[in-house]
Design brief:
Length: 137
């Protein structure tokens, strides 16, 4: 597996990510996944914003899933790992959030992204070759 297929972001839970029960609000886990997702793209040399301007492609999410296992709390340090699972027809990533203190898996998830050609907003049924190549697919 190519080294461009994994990325780990080390993060710390800020107070403003908590809900009234003093655990991370469920929607913030998607934010953590995005931090790792964009880290993975960046590590592969892909800037999706620049790519959209230069090549007229965007890569919207079409599906996400999240399994909550153990809550994160204020000031918890954690690793959010993104792993590229597929990048041919769509970009599929798996995610795992693990608390640093005890190594406990807190959350698992996945996402699907498709290539959309602008300005037609046409869904492409293949990820562009340069993106696949950057990921070593």
């Amino acid at each position: 597996m190519s080294q461009n297929r994994n990325f780990q972001a080390r993060l710390k839970v800020p107070f403003h990510d908590l809900d009234p029960l003093n655990v991370v609000w469920h929607g913030n886990y998607l934010k953590y996944f995005d931090i790792a997702r964009f880290g993975l793209f960046s590590a592969a040399g892909i800037d999706l914003y620049r790519y959209s301007l230069e090549k007229n492609y965007i890569f919207p999410l079409t599906k996400t899933s999240t399994k909550f296992i153990s809550p994160l709390r204020h000031n918890d340090e954690f690793i959010c790992k993104a792993t590229l699972l597929e990048a041919t027809v769509k970009i599929v990533m798996g995610f795992e959030i693990r608390r640093v203190m005890d190594g406990a898996v807190c959350t698992k998830g996945s996402s699907d992204q498709v290539a959309v050609k602008l300005p037609q907003m046409e869904i492409m049924f293949e990820i562009p070759g340069d993106i696949r190549e950057a990921f070593g697919v």
